[in-house]
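Obj.: predict assembly geometry.
Materials: sequence records (below).
Method: joint structure prediction, all chains together.
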Amino acid sequence: MLTLMRIAWTNLSRDRVAQAMTFLLPIIFFSIFALVFGGQRDVATAGIRVALVDEDQSELSRRLVDGLKKESGLRVRTAGGDDATGPALDRAAAERLVKNGDVPVAVVIPRGLGDAFGQSGFGGGPAIVLLADPSDPIAPNMVGGLMQKVTMTAAPDLMMQGGMRQFETHAGALTPQQRAAVDQWIPQLKPGATPGAAGAAPMGVTVQVVDVMRSGNQRGSLVSFYAAGTGVMFLLFSMVGAAGFVLLEEAESGTLERLLCTRIGMSGILFGKWAFLVAVGFAQLTVMFLWGSVAFGLPLFSHLGGFAVMTLATSAAAAALALVLATIARSRAQLSGFSTILILTMSALGGSMFPRFLMSETMQQIGLVTFNAWALDGYLKVFWRNAPVWQLWPQVAVLSGLAVVFLTGARILARKWEAV
Amino acid sequence: MSVLTVSNATKSFGKVTALAGASFDLEAGELLALLGPNGAGKTTLIRAITGRVRLDGGEIRLFGDVISGGQTPSELGVVPQDVALYPLMTARENLQAFGRLQGLSGKGLAEHVDWALEHTGLTDRDAEPIGRFSGGMRRRLNIACGIVHRPRIVLLDEPTVGVDPQSRDRIYDALAGLRATGVSLLLTTHHLEEAEARCSRTIIIDHGKVIAAGTLPELVDRTVGRHRLVTLRLDAPFDAAPLTRDSAIEIDAADPRVGRARLKDVGLELPPLLERLHRAGRLVEDIDVRGPSLQAVFIHLTGRELRE
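Observations (raw structure tokens):
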């Protein structure tokens, strides 16, 4: 038994890939998960981006705006320009910001809120509207809660005035009828009381959350988020596997040497392999999204243009990445080992395993160095934000640029197989 | 006329010298064997001719033109030592693929593929995936893929390694057919008897240098000489015979009934030897007379067996 252990230990101590898979990969994943989920408090303190529209322009609304701006958990934007300059936001502009993914939630203080609050106090008047992108389930809830807090802390005198008026309205001279009215009102103040039709909070303002993203097939749109995340990660795995097959196995079997003795040359070989991998990747993602369409109602056919553009760009970059990894590796086993570490790390950072909005700002920025983040952002634009094809240009440009960089790297590294 | 000339080729990989001034010619229409122990520089030399190795010094000329590294001339056909084929494809599909990569297309491609299949005896198996092929058939297809574009010179690196004698014969028959069409062939092999029997000339390379070149008789004359090795098997050990003192006979250490003698003129020297044995009362059970072999030449030149 000791002999067997010694043999196994010798093999492990000489196999760097196995060592990395055994010791390095768990540490990388632990670190990423710790940074993402262990840093939730940091996410809050980093500030949720919020667009704020003051349609009311009352004393109450001004105090609410000031109060929200002072909240450290929020990064409030009231103007249209990216640098917080320009004209004040209106409801339509704020909705566009949410739909474009610039902010996850917009707060609209409706006209008449101040007057109604002064007249009827708690929960009266029009509801404050939260225009929300539900792909980020945290932001609307957090902003809604902070709205209530700000209402309580930013306008205590106004609340008291409203409360007295409510007392006079509901209690009056405490006639039997008034007593009955008070008895009917009091239970509404109790914790857990059923709110009004618009989701009113009994002791604060009424907040209405409006989903601005999903007017059509809600379930299908959400499925696209997971289809893209899973699809891109497995695309990378299959591309690396295929690259190992078409390049490293050919090198090991001698067919690459034979190909190099023909007219095609190394550049032609690499381009041919890349084109094949792109076609395979395109087919793989298409099959996956088709399955999503058939089984889960993913709205593929209404987004064919954007899907085709993103899938082509994603497959091109993934195929090029796989080729550069294959040219770095000395064997298929080595390729399998270090590509697994790289792909899982990129997928974790890039949003394939959990949404990037769960991460801190820093982690989200780091995620942008990964291939996955750009691909997922593109698919989200297509299926979630219903963006026209031309709006995909940043993602397509980055993915195309990555494809060029990876292919260039693969070509340089492939010189090891050329004439020596 | 030389179709291929290698002049003073040198190549080092780090501190390892693979070629140290190798020179030889390949004549038009000949089948030239390149022999050498492992690590002698054979494969480096073949790869240099195909343009896959850039020489540090010297030059290689193909039909008078200097070969520059990086590009394999289309006049060359290369048959690698590995069976470098696509196993899930049929024989015809493999040939079509390599033919296209050599610039063939359309009717010309089909004709070349048919020719290569016929030349290697694979026409009736052309539609089968090569996973079902025997080792010998794969070797022949390996050759077919190297000649599908009908090159004027074919380089073959160990084309018969790992195949049975019958398959070897078929491979050499195919090479003979090629040679008959005017193609020049250069092959490396570990089978000395093949080089001896099938090749018109032999080159022996060791430590990156060509140490001998010529036909078998030329090599024999220059090295071991033209003695014949006569092996005698008696009914009793040589020890018991008066011939024991005959210094011309070496007694086999493992079997004392077996003795060997090197005779310059068998016709003149063998009868008196047999007469002496007869007079000593010994019965000669077996006689074997052999001319000098390439193996003897090889050992004489390199000091070791080819497979060392």
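Conclusions so far: The first strand of chain A starts at residue 48 and ends at 54.
To do: check interface contacts against the pulldown list.
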